[in-house]
Amino acid sequence: MDTLLFKSYIQEIFGSLLDDFEEDDEYGFHQFSSGSYKRIGYATNITPEIVQQAAVHKVDLIITHHDAWSFMYGMKERCLELLREHGIAHFYVHLPLDYAEFGTCNSLLLELGVERIVQPSRHVEGDSSVGIGQLKSPTTMEKLVETMSSVLGENVFYQKNSEKAIQRIGMVTGAGNGTNQLREALSHNCDVYITGEKTLYTVQYARFIGLNIIVGSHTFTEIFGVRSLAQKLQERFRDIEVIQLTEEHIEVVHT
């Protein structure tokens, strides 16, 4: 798979979602050349540790959900130095992946056993709307927490604010910690709201409106969308190898 084939396929599978956002802001390409890419490594985040790990595994191209954030002062510059040093290309795709049919929200909902996507997450007035999935049959809050912990491979925070059975799940992966998003989930009759970050306002408001809530980590609520993208690439380009780069569960609070 060469650069032109890769970029062409990215345009094909994301389509108008790329047109909705500025390149370099919400998606972009670093260190791309006319070479070919035989081994792809994927992760949620790009960090110096991820680039060095990719170099050890002889990865030609790293795919991530996030670019290195500008407010992580100096980290993006260090990542670019390491990419140049090791001759590794990097593609990141943020909001277009959040809203893609195979993206972060839908991929995690399917991992949790959702039978039907009722409503995909969308970009509305500068924020992410709630994605909604329907389980085949109702379950308990305790069983869903157990399933999510197993799927993410980490302990999750949860707050049981209602005794109702769980069948309709509302979700915004990553930083879906806005009270407006909880209110939207409630207005769509969701039995639980799932996201990847929490604040004081998140848990206070969830309790106030009586909405069950489960919170995993930002990194691991979003990894499945990146995996889905990597798998699509492997299905199209049979000669490439895909590996998941290891990220730590540094966001989990151990009690």
Automatic annotation (TrEMBL):
The keyword Ribosomal protein does not apply. InterPro entries: DUF34/NIF3, DUF34/NIF3_sf. GO terms for molecular function: metal ion binding. A divalent metal cation binds at H65, H66, D98, H218, E222. Pfam families: DUF34_NIF3. Keywords: Metal-binding. One of its GO terms (cellular component) is cytoplasm. The keyword Metal-binding applies. Belongs to the GTP cyclohydrolase I type 2/NIF3 family. This is GTP cyclohydrolase 1 type 2 homolog. It comes from Paenibacillus glucanolyticus.
